Backbone:
């Protein structure tokens, strides 16, 4: 019996999907904007909204690669003309789970894809109890990832990653938290970041002004949509990835053909 490698299997799946969706493939060329996609944890041990199975994530990446997509950093995507943005995607990971190194980084290097990790400063090197205990990346690991040139760091708050805490935080508490993150990331990695992803997508115009003051030029939300030249860079929409997106749904979601 012939042995089929993982890459060959994923290519075969992709070819089958392409055949089934051939009429829609042409329609996909008319999509508007660049998809900024959001993953969280990559694991088989959890089955919830915040988790994607590693095998499904691998299939997503192979599909992007076979379709000719380039995964770039956010600042590289901003301002691209429509014809330049046709096969561009921005890949983001929220929270900073250790599963990124185990289940994502090798694939990103293989496909020459770039990605942004939105870090919860307080939980770096610890574990986050979110529907199960989830180990987080350490500062040393972030240093290793940054050195690759394929990963950049964003802020996901220092310690406001809880729905009620984020909702109730005063303007002063939000400002203090964001400044603490900037100081901490500079201490450990020798750089600050100009990208912020609001925890649970909770924000307001007042908080946006605070974030701008703290040095954040690109602010990611949880609103669904695509990045284009009309997008307010302080309210960048994203597409949430999860186990609910098989390859057919993934294609329709990214190429806006639903």
Residues:
């Amino acid at each position: 019996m012939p042995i089929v490698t993982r890459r060959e299997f994923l290519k075969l799946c992709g070819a089958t999907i392409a055949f089934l969706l051939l009429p829609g493939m042409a329609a996909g060329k008319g999509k508007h904007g660049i998809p900024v996609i959001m993953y969280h944890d990559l694991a088989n041990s959890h089955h919830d909204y915040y988790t994607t199975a590693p095998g499904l994530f691998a299939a997503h990446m192979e599909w992007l690669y076979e379709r000719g997509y380039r995964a770039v950093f956010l600042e590289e995507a901003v301002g691209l003309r429509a014809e330049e943005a046709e096969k561009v995607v921005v890949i983001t990971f929220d929270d900073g789970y250790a599963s990124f190194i185990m289940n994502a980084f090798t694939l990103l290097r293989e496909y020459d894809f770039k990605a942004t990790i939105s870090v919860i400063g307080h939980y770096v090197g610890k574990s986050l109890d979110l529907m199960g205990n989830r180990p987080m990346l350490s500062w040393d690991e972030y240093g290793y990832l940054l050195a690759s040139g394929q990963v950049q760091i964003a802020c996901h708050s220092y310690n406001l990653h809880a729905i009620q805490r984020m909702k109730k935080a005063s303007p002063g508490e939000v400002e203090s938290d964001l400044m603490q993150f900037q100081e901490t990331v500079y201490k450990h990695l020798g750089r600050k970041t100009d990208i912020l992803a609001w925890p649970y997508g909770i924000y307001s115009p007042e908080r946006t002004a605070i974030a701008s003051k703290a040095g954040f030029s690109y602010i990611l939300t949880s609103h669904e949509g695509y990045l284009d030249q009309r997008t307010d860079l302080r309210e960048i929409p994203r597409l949430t990835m999860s186990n609910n997106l098989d390859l057919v749904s993934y294609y329709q979601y990214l190429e806006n053909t639903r």
